[in-house]
Amino acid sequence: MRTATYVPNKRNVQGTTTSIFQPDLLIPMTIFSAVGGSRRRLDCRLVFAIVIAILLPCYCTGYPSLQRDSCFAALYAFGDSYTDTGNFVRAIYPSSPIGRPPYGETFFRRPTGRASDGRLVVDFLAEAVGLPLLPPYLAELSTAAAEVWRRGACFAVGWSAAMDAAFFRELGLKNLSWTGLSLAAQLQLFQDLQHSLTPEPGYRDMMSNSLFLVGEFGVNDYQYFLFLAKNVTDVYSAIPNVTSTISMGIKDLIRLGARTLIVPGVFPLGCLPNLLTLFKSERNEDYEPRTGCLKFLNELSTRHNLRLQEELDRLRELHPEVAIIYADYYGAATEIFNFPKKFGFKTPLTACCGGGKGPYNYSPLVNCGDKGSKVCDDPSQYVSWDGIHLTEAASEIVARGVLEGLYAVPSVAETCSSFSM
Ligand SMILES: *[C@@H]1O[C@H](CO)[C@@H](O)[C@H](O)[C@H]1NC(C)=O
Ligand SMILES: *[C@@H]1O[C@H](CO)[C@@H](O)[C@H](O)[C@H]1NC(C)=O
Ligand SMILES: *[C@@H]1O[C@H](CO)[C@@H](O)[C@H](O)[C@H]1NC(C)=O
């Protein structure tokens, strides 16, 4: 039986006192913070004694499916640099700073092409469902064996947007140096791979036994729109295009036979050090008093996420046989920005690694790893790794929020246990 779905860190190995969530959520969380089997049962009994009715079926059966060898035959992921396990750096732009130390220093102890000091949300997801960390498709296309691809692949590429380059050029972004792949282009790569690996009639089985992570998408779309917009609030008008394009991608996967999809919303963009730097304002009222995040960008994220969920509701109605899970990255991350100390974070709006002078430690001219940049001693005390991307510590919290059901609708565990593999 598979036990440790997460490599425990100092935040969660000590059980009851170190829940990473709010006090009212502390009790259920202790179950997952226990390390060994007997501890797990003890916590279970405790919880039973306290709140039998609420927790009965879901927590004390211990998310059985996630403990099994694997609920899914494979995991395929699409998205941008938040999900890219190495495509951008290793196949497209090798001289990117992301390919150099200190990237990767915490977990892999070397740069892997991930835009973080360690693992990404997709890595924690792969571990939780008992699958290998995803090989980057473009980077390992010619070297990895077919068996490897049958268990999963990452098609996410840094700088990708849901929309394609032609769309932005038509809008007037003439000088766009386009290095990512649109969602449609990533889906095409996936289909090419699968048709070569799994000819009919096995194709639909392969699709229905696989888990798909579609996103996050949107961050780069909105960045491009922000370059174009004369008035920053104009960027809200881009939301229907972006969300309907994501929805079309999901439809394509369902048409091909996908039965379980996780679709993340975007993070609170107003809390990213790079955007806080670029859109710095003199007006106090432009910032959320509690978090110091920029209101108009969080509003953008919120509106995108609401619209995306409406699209998902429509798809669920059309395809009741398909599990479409909304992963609320925004909610999980907002928990961190609202209660940073509870999670062991010091200054949640400051990048661990960067060359900025101000409070955010971000400069567009001095990347993390460049001469003149500095890296913090303990990345686990920081939410932002390089001003744009999350630290492993923050990714783990977001992943747990999604996997343990609080920030996923419906819960991943529910979906997984319906698979009897
Ligand atoms: C596009 O880039 C060229 C060369 O960098 C520059 O001269 C030109 O002004 C740019 N055009 C726009 C619309 O930004
Ligand atoms: C931007 O547009 C919005 C709505 O169209 C308007 O309310 C706002 O005042 C504008 N802001 C600026 C700085 O022009
Ligand atoms: C973007 O939205 C506009 C307005 O709704 C629509 O006319 C256009 O076809 C959309 N473009 C794409 C590529 O979805």
How would you explain this protein's 3D organization?
The protein has 421 residues and is an alpha/beta fold. The chain has a single domain (43-345, 396-414), classed as 3-Layer(aba) Sandwich (Rossmann fold). It has 17 helices and eight strands. The strands form two sheets. The chain has a six-stranded mixed β-sheet with strand order 2-1-3-4-5-8. The chain has a two-stranded antiparallel sheet with strand order 6-7. Helix 1 (26-33) packs across helix 2 and helix 5 (121-128) packs across helix 16. It starts with 25 loop residues before the first helix and ends with a helix.
* Poorly predicted sequence stretches spanning 5 or more consecutive residues: 1-68
- Figure out the total of helices: 17
Q: Which fold name corresponds to the CATH topology?
A: Rossmann fold
Q: Can you give the mean pLDDT?
A: 83
Major sheet: 6 strands, mixed
Helix proportion range: 40-55%
Q: What is the strand tally?
A: 8
Output the CATH class name: Alpha Beta
Instruction: Return the CATH architecture.
Output: 3-Layer(aba) Sandwich
Radius of gyration: 21 Å
Biggest β-sheet: strands ordered side by side in the sheet: 2-1-3-4-5-8
Residue share in β-strands: 5-15%
Please identify the structural class as seen in this structure.
alpha/beta
Quickly describe the structure.
The protein has 421 residues and is α/β, with parallel strands linked by helices.
